[in-house]
Each structure stands twice: as C-alpha cells, then as structure tokens.
C-alpha cells in the first residue's frame, strides 16, 4: 500500500526513535536533564540554564524553522513516547548548501543504547534527501570519543583541529571539525 511505502521511507522514523518538532510542552522533559553537567558540557554550555532560557531556545528554533535557517527536532523513543533529547541541522547556507549538525541525548543513562546513531542517521537523510544539502559539518570536543565514533561510523571525516579552542574544567582542549559531503553519504 502506498501509505506503508511512505511510512517506511520516512527519514523521521528510525527503528527505536522518531524525530518530531520541538513543542512548548516539551519544556518539563527538557529541564529534567538539561542541567545535568555531563549533558551540558558535551554541548559547550557550562553554566546551568533557567527554564526561561530554554523556553526562549524553543521559540528561537520555531522561528529558525519558519525562516528555513535551521531545523531542530525532538528525539522520541518510539515504544514509550519518552523525550530523549534534541538534534538539529542549523545555520543552513542556501548558497553553499551547507549546515551544521548537533545532537544531545539528555539523560546520560540513555547513552550507548543506539539512540544517537539512529538520530544522526535520520538527520543525514533529512539533510541530503529532503533539504538537498551538499555538506554537513559538526564540531566535537576531541575527548568525546563515543560521539566521534558515531560520526565516523556514519561517514563523517575528521577534517580539522581547532587547537586548544575550548577551556574546559581548567584545561584547554582541542575541538575537531568533522564533515560529510553528499557524494560520501551512503543512502542505503
Ligand atoms: C554523543 C551522543 C549523541 C551519542 O549518542 P548515543 O545514543 O550515546 O550513541 P550510540 O549508543 O548510538 O552509540 C555509541 C557508540 O559509541 C561507542 N562507544 C562508547 N564508548 C566509547 C569510547 N570510549 N570510545 C569509542 N567509542 C565508544 C559505542 O560502542 C557505540 O558504538 P557502536 O554502536 O558502534 O557499538 C550522546 O552520547 C550524547 O548526547 N552525549 C552528550 C552530548 C554530546 O556529547 N553531544 C555531542 C556534541 S558534538
């Protein structure tokens, strides 16, 4: 049936997760783990953030989506409907057809369960098959080994090092630049 075919091909549906728009009502779920240090540090947000700051972030993502500047999605576990985190393709450049990818699974207890891999896979399909991007870039701290593993597994290449670009917990750390081109993206 045609409906089944469309559902199977949706880049917003993985095996265990779906991606959907972020809603104002997600704020309680976001605040539950957003201020977990481990989660925030991976995102480069060292200072705890208030509910109001996160609400303003939701408003901004809505505005960016309306203007086509970037798209942010909630990552939802299919079976339980649980809010797991957020991911985005942002800073979309219409001339270069480039964008930046970011992702965070908020509760550290939900790391290493395959959710991140599935969400990035979906974002690549959205980026290359829906938004017709040419290149997707991301920046990741060199010490986030599991994140780097996920990105490399899905075809990103390490293309640069921003040496000692980040001051974290008293030490300067390197940031890696990673990217993937549409020609390198494995559509299977
Ligand atoms: C980075 C993040 C999105 C990854 O999502 P996740 O759901 O934990 O990732 P997955 O479970 O899909 O995959 C983790 C992979 O890392 C591997 N891994 C775990 N620890 C590792 C380590 N120390 N070194 C290398 N690989 C490691 C796992 O084996 C798994 O790979 P595999 O599927 O090939 O076996 C998630 O950990 C997260 O949100 N972290 C906090 C925020 C953050 O750091 N965001 C990234 C900013 S760029």
Number of domains: 1
What's the architecture, going by CATH? Answer: 3-Layer(aba) Sandwich
Uncertain spans, ≥5 residues at pLDDT below 50?
A: none
Shape: globular
Strand order of the largest sheet: 1-2-3-4-5-7-6
Question: SSE string, helix = H, strand = E?
Answer: HEHHHEEEHEHEE
- What is the strand tally? 7
The level of helicity is 25-40%
Biggest sheet overview: 7 strands, mixed
Radius of gyration equals 16 Å
How far from one another are the termini? Answer: 22 Å
Question: Which small-molecule species are bound to the chains here?
Answer: coenzyme A
Going by CATH, the homologous superfamily would be Gcn5-related N-acetyltransferase (GNAT)
CATH topology title? Aminopeptidase
* CATH C-level category: Alpha Beta
Give the class from helix and strand content and strand pairing. alpha+beta
For the residues shown, what is the average pLDDT?
93
Bin the strand percentage: 25-35%
Tally of individual helices = 6
Describe what this molecule looks like in 3D.
This protein is of the alpha+beta class. It has six helices and seven strands. A seven-stranded mixed sheet has the order 1-2-3-4-5-7-6, sandwiched between helices. The site of coenzyme A has 23 residues, from helix 3, strand 4, helix 5, strand 5 and helix 6.
């Amino acid at each position: 049936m045609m409906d089944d075919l469309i559902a199977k091909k949706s880049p917003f549906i993985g095996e265990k997760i779906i991606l959907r728009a972020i809603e104002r009502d997600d704020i309680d779920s976001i605040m539950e783990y957003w201020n977990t240090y481990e989660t925030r540090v991976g995102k480069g947000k060292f200072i705890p953030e208030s509910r109001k700051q996160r609400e303003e972030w939701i408003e901004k993502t809505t505005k960016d989506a309306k203007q086509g500047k970037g798209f942010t999605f909630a990552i939802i576990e299919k079976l339980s409907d649980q809010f797991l985190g957020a991911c985005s393709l942002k800073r979309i450049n219409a001339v270069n057809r480039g964008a930046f990818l970011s992702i965070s699974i908020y509760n550290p207890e939900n790391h290493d369960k395959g959710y991140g891999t599935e969400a990035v896979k979906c974002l690549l399909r959205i980026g290359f098959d829906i938004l017709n991007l040419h290149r997707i870039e991301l920046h990741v701290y060199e010490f986030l080994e599991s994140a780097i593993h996920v990105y490399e597994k899905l075809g990103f290449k390490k293309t640069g090092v921003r040496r000692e670009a980040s001051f974290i917990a008293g030490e300067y750390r390197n940031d890696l630049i990673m990217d993937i081109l549409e020609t390198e993206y494995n559509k299977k």
